[in-house]
Amino acid sequence: FPYTTLFRSSQTAHVVVRATVVSSTNPLPKWHRVTLQSDQVLKGQVGSQFSLTEPAGACCGRGLFALQAGDTRILFLKRVGPMLHLMGGGRGVLPTTPDLVHAVQALLAIDTSNDLAHLLAQNLNHVEPRIADDAALALAALPGLALTASERALLAQSLAASVQRGSTRTAALADIAARLGDANVIDTVMPLYLQAKRTDQASLLGKALTRCSAELVAERLPVFVGTARRSNLRAAHLLADLPSEIGRAH
After folding, report:
1. Which end of the chain has the smaller Cβ count within 10 Å, N or C?
2. What is the pLDDT of residues 163-212, one digit of tens each?
3. How many CB atoms are closer than 10 A to CB 232?
4. How many helices (H) and strands (E) does the chain have?
């Protein structure tokens, strides 16, 4: 699993807590300290008040510098000796929206990889972009991926919307489709590939199709070829990317 997914963070954090900032200070010029009050401990153990420290100033990988007294956040923390530290810098600090709190609680309650796959699939079209993006990333890396027919329909819906918006989520969704790779998935990806308005989106989908069964791709391709020049050029490129003996046969 990518380190930055909510599932990975939930599983590897020593402490997951919803907390409110009590104070934000610089005890030394080079160090910034935030003292927080525990509102809801979701995992592990932490005191009713605790402090986190990081190098002062705004910089990539830092997550405390923008916090002010009264701010409430979900924090993913690791222990190094007696001290707590953010996991992944700013990626370990989340807004405390009801949707995100619920999503983290659900991930912490997961028992099996099958349960996880079902939960992630349900989140692919979540209204909260952070949750939907995260679900796609985690699902793409899930070992032994298996989805039900209804979950595959959710994948198709999410992929179509992502391609239409030109979203970066397309990469992870296309990877999921390639890993499933059956005829129904190919029938979902093929028209999106042929009709995509953006070349980068088409490229992602084309690469996903070349990872599916070459025989199935070549068999299903003629069903979707029309009269549009761009689509026909993409179909020709896809055939050229298939093994030569299969491409020649079609």
Report:
1. C
2. 999 999 999 999 999 999 999 999 999 999 999 999 999 999 999 999 99
3. 13
4. 11, 6
- Distance CA(211)–CA(217), nearest Å, equals 10
What residues have CB less than 8 Å from 126, skipping those under 6 apart?
99, 103, 132, 135
Residues near 6 by Cβ (< 8 Å), separated by ≥ 6? Answer: 103, 104, 107, 131, 134, 138
Indicate the pLDDT class of residue 147, thresholds 50, 70 and 90. very high
Q: How far apart are CA 164 and CA 158, in angstroms?
A: 10
Helix axes 149-165, 113-122, angle to 10 degrees: 40
Phi and psi of 5, rounded to 5°? -70, 150
Rounded distance between C-alpha atoms, residue 130 and residue 243, angstroms: 38
Q: What's the chain's average pLDDT?
A: 90
Cα pseudo-dihedral 190, 194, 198, 200, rounded to 10: 60
d(CA 172, CA 149): 19
CA–CA separation, 197 vs 155, rounded Å?
Answer: 20
pTM of the model: 0.84
Q: How many CB atoms lie within 10 A of CB 64?
A: 23
Q: For 131-154, b where at least 16 C-beta lie within 10 A, e where not — what string? A: bbbbbbbbbbbbeebebeeebbeb
pLDDT-derived band of residue 111, with 50, 70 and 90 as boundaries?
A: confident
